[in-house]
């Protein structure tokens, strides 16, 4: 009977935990999954920034055209569009410049460091 008791005790000790190799395999798999996730999310945020820049630029263009339709000339600056209620705030992605020569027009220039072009 002593032999059977010893076998049960030794089997009980073998089944109580994970081996070092099993733990290392799990850690490697988690690292691979984390890497894949980081690269997938990076692509999504880049597309989001591009879309936000395009929407901001289009909003400025529409506001300038609406201002011109209501008041005649294009606005002197972006603050004039805010004051007239066509924009909520001056853009943090683009600068607006009113041009009078050779014809009246405006330009939108991306601010460096914003990621917009």
Which key terms come to mind for this protein?
single chain, 117 residues, mainly alpha, 3 helices, 2 strands, 10% strand, rod-shaped
Structure in words:
With 117 residues, the chain is mainly alpha-helical. It has one domain. The protein has three helices and two strands, in the order H-H-H-E-E. The protein has a two-stranded antiparallel ribbon with strand order 1-2. The radius of gyration is 32 Å and the shape is rod-shaped. The model has no long low-confidence stretch (mean pLDDT 87).
Number of helices: 3
- What would you call the structural class? mainly alpha
In total, how many beta strands? Answer: 2
Strand order across the largest sheet: 1-2
> How many domains comprise the coordinates?
1
Low-confidence stretches: none
Taking all residues together, what is the mean pLDDT? 87
- Approximately what portion of the residues adopt beta-strand conformation? 5-15%
What is the CA-CA span between the terminal residues?
83 Å
Which overall shape is indicated by the principal axes computed on the Cα atoms? Answer: rod-shaped
Q: What is the element string, with H for helices and E for strands? A: HHHEE
Residues in helices, as a percent range:
55-70%
User: Rg, please?
Assistant: 32 Å
Main sheet, how many strands, which sense, barrel? 2 strands, antiparallel
